[in-house]
């Protein structure tokens, strides 16, 4: 799962026993050599789905990490793009990789923007928010977008019940709950707390008009359904 340039087991344990912010600060130098970085195939499929809706003005990458989302914002957006994250270490890596973008350290549950952007994207971040925190996150993105602006992010289909991926994700989430029950500060990272129906309901409650499109380039499950969908939430 990890390249030789990635973190050691000891480094991963130290990161997992830290707060989310401190953990990502520690992981930042090697983050792009881990499977946690969003795959290029997902970025490419997202860009292909968004291209017919553009071009856009300014773009925002929510929970930007090391800046992988800039790979699609740059060709889709005509204005200057911004990435926001709360990890100093991750932002430092992003700033070095994309010096032409703006980078802001902030809590995305309280985004400091108002009608500044035409497209917002986010990749792999929802698991870092408890269900009760999603309304604040989505409200902030809604506020940051101009009228008719779009918030887009991919969301994977749940693995079939009883499959190896199902048990792996269930085991990971249970381990994280035990860890957070006995150790402080908590490290919030769950794979099973953001089902599609709940995410769509929270987006609608935040004022978005929501649709989804299948990212067929990422394949289909055995039942023919797409492995991944792109959520398109428009500020109407």
Summary, kept brief:
With 236 residues, the protein is of the alpha/beta class. 36% of the residues lie in helices and 19% in strands. Strand 2, helix 5 (88-97) and strand 3 (102-105) form a beta-alpha-beta unit.
- Beta percentage is 15-25%
Give me the CATH superfamily of the largest domain: Vaccinia Virus protein VP39
CATH architecture of the largest domain: 3-Layer(aba) Sandwich
Give the low-confidence spans: none
CATH topology description of the largest domain: Rossmann fold
Overall average pLDDT: 93
Q: Total number of β-strand segments?
A: 7
CATH class of the largest domain: Alpha Beta
Helix count, DSSP H or I runs of 4 or more residues: 8
Q: Give the neighbour order of strands across the main sheet.
A: 3-2-1-4-5-7-6
How far the N terminus sits from the C terminus, by CA atoms, comes to 42 Å
Helix content: 25-40%
Shape: globular
Give the topology string: H per helix, E per strand: HHHEHEHEEHEHHEE
Largest sheet: 7 strands, mixed
Question: What is the count of distinct domains?
Answer: 2
Rounded radius of gyration (Å):
17 Å
Structural class, from secondary structure content? alpha/beta
């Amino acid at each position: 799962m990890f390249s030789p340039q990635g973190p050691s087991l000891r480094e991963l344990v130290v990161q997992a026993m830290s707060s989310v912010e401190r953990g990502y600060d520690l992981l930042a130098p090697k983050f792009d050599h881990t499977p946690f970085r969003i795959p290029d195939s997902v970025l490419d499929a997202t860009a292909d789905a968004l291209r017919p809706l553009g071009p856009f003005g300014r773009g925002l990458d929510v929970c930007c990490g090391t800046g992988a989302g800039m790979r699609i914002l740059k060709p889709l957006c005509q204005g200057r793009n911004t990435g926001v994250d709360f990890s100093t270490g991750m932002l430092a890596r992003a700033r070095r990789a994309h010096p032409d973008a703006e980078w802001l350290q902030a809590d995305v549950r309280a985004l400091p923007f108002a009608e500044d952007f035409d497209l917002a994207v986010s990749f792999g971040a929802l698991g870092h928010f408890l269900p009760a925190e999603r309304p604040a996150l989505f409200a902030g993105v809604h506020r940051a977008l101009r009228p008719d602006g779009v918030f887009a992010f991919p969301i994977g289909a749940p693995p079939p019940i009883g499959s190896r991926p199902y048990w792996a994700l269930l085991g990971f989430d249970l381990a994280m709950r035990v860890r957070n029950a006995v150790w402080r500060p908590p490290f919030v990272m769950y794979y099973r707390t953001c089902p599609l129906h709940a995410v769509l309901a929270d987006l609608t409650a935040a004022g978005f008009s929501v649709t989804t499109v299948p990212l067929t380039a990422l394949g289909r499950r055995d039942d023919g359904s797409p492995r991944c969908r792109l959520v398109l939430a428009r500020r109407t």
